[in-house]
Design a protein that fits this description.
Length: 236
């Protein structure tokens, strides 16, 4: 670790000893090996709400997450946190996600909320739809409030689903949910969106297993191959 990295991490480290202990405990939690069967993986499905769509300027407001144990969606294994905002987002933004001024001002201190999220995820793979937005927003907040460089294994369903269902003409979360009969009545609420995404992950994991992609590493390779094809402009 270079001096500047050490300094940033030290300055951003939580002052509360219990928070420092929680961060230290999170660092010790191992990630599953690539050879882990998909049925033995705990998958953390995540969605965020923010003050806007600019990942480099807008602020993280809330995180919703729900876990699949293998292919089983465990509703009791879920998390929703609102980060306390020093500045409330604009009215137009509030109308999108429904997190009003009072809720934003009375949320958890950001370091506390982010440590709760890390404790929930552990070292398990993260899953999202168009995951770059979610992971960049969370990663920026973690660097800002905890001095932490966060590099989880991320499975992006926007890549994995087309790899498994190449004939499907679906471009967004709503289209994929409709294709598989998944109801998604409450949009742009982090936990609700995470729940819909988790149901899509169930579909994807079942298809992956049938198609012979039976381990965490195999699922990761499949999404990476699809992403590479899309970058080359080749059909998936």
């Amino acid at each position: 670790m270079g001096f500047l990295d050490w300094l940033r991490r030290t300055l951003a480290s939580p002052r509360d000893p219990s928070l420092r202990e929680q961060l230290a405990a999170w660092r010790t939690r191992p990630a599953p090996a690539p050879t882990t069967p998909i049925g033995a993986v705990r998958w953390v499905v995540v969605d965020v709400e923010s003050s806007g769509l600019d990942v480099w300027r807008d602020r993280l407001i809330s995180i919703g997450a729900v876990a699949l144990h293998g292919e089983v969606l465990v509703l009791s294994d879920s998390l929703e946190v609102v980060l306390r905002q020093a500045e409330v987002s604009e009215t137009a933004n509030i109308l999108v996600h429904g997190i009003g001024a009072t809720a934003q001002q009375s949320g958890l201190p950001p370091a506390r909320a982010l440590l709760d999220f890390l404790a929930f995820t552990g070292g398990d793979p993260l899953v999202a739809f168009h995951a770059a937005f979610d992971t960049v927003m969370i990663g920026r907040a973690l660097r800002s409030h905890l001095g932490l460089r966060w590099r989880p294994l991320v499975i992006d369903l926007a890549d994995l689903l087309p790899a498994l269902f190449p004939q499907a003409d679906c471009r967004d979360l709503d289209a994929w949910a409709a294709r598989f009969g998944i109801r998604h009545d409450t949009r742009h609420q982090a936990l609700s969106d995470a729940y819909a995404t988790a149901q899509l992950l169930q579909v994807a994991l079942a298809a992956a297993r049938v198609q012979g992609h039976s381990t965490l590493g195999a699922v990761d390779r499949l999404q990476r191959q699809q992403r590479a094809l899309q970058r080359l402009g080749a059909p998936g």
